[in-house]
């Protein structure tokens, strides 16, 4: 009889302990933990002009990058036409311009009339190994798409560090 009573008491205690969670215990159960999303904070916040040519396959990726840049502490602005690049550069103080590698000539041509001083971070779309190698020879820092946003943010930090040390992203020829 004592054995049965003891088993009943143990059974009740076990059943009641399952439903009763102390403060914080609910976070220790498998699959119910608090989500701590990793955030990325820019080491050197920058003013960034993003040239997202609508005809480029990178346009949507570059537009989607804007919120991540803001969360990291950068000040991005997206322009979509070549005619908007020159006025944006002349009115703003941009540290760098993010543009598809094939549109860098357009960005530089639009900037010729302004006194803007900026660096370019070229973005490659599905680059082959030779294309990536050529871009890395021409520029110290390049970004790739598709890719992780954290990788682009790391390239921006590397380029900003290079700018602060007095270096240029384009190699001298």
Quick description:
With 173 residues, this protein is α/β, with parallel strands linked by helices. The chain contains six helices and five strands. The protein has a domain at 47-164: 3-Layer(aba) Sandwich (Rossmann fold).
Structure, described:
There is one protein chain. With 173 residues, the chain is an alpha/beta fold. It has a domain at 47-164: Rossmann fold (3-Layer(aba) Sandwich), CATH 3.40.50. 44% of the residues lie in helices and 14% in strands. It contains six helices and five strands; from the N terminus they run H-E-H-E-H-E-H-E-H-E-H. The protein has a five-stranded parallel β-sheet with strand order 2-1-3-4-5, with helices on both faces. The longest helix is centred in the first third of the chain and has 18 residues, at 2-19. The N and C termini lie far apart (95 Å). The model has no long low-confidence stretch (mean pLDDT 80).
Give the proportion of residues in helices.
40-55%
Q: Looking across the biggest beta sheet, what order are the strands in?
A: 2-1-3-4-5
Structural class: alpha/beta
**End-to-end gap:** 95 Å
CATH topology of the domain at 47-164: Rossmann fold
Q: Tell how many strands the DSSP assignment holds.
A: 5
CATH class of the domain at 47-164, please?
Answer: Alpha Beta
Radius of gyration: 26 Å
């Amino acid at each position: 009889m004592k054995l049965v009573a003891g088993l009943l008491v143990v059974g009740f205690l076990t059943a009641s302990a399952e439903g009763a969670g102390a403060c914080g215990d609910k976070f220790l159960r498998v699959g119910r933990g608090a989500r701590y999303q990793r955030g990325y904070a820019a080491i050197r916040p920058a003013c960034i002009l993003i040239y997202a040519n609508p005809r480029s396959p990178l346009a949507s990726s570059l537009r989607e990058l804007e919120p991540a840049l803001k969360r990291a502490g950068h000040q991005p602005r997206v322009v979509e036409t070549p005619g908007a690049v020159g006025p944006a550069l002349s009115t703003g103080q941009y540290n760098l311009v993010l543009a598809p590698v094939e549109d860098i000539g357009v960005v530089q041509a639009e900037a010729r009339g302004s006194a803007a001083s900026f660096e370019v971070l070229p973005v490659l779309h599905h680059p082959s190994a030779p294309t990536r190698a050529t871009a890395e020879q021409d520029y110290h820092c390049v970004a790739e798409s598709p890719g992780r946003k954290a990788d682009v943010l790391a390239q921006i930090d590397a380029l900003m560090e290079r700018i602060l040390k007095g270096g240029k992203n384009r190699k001298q020829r």
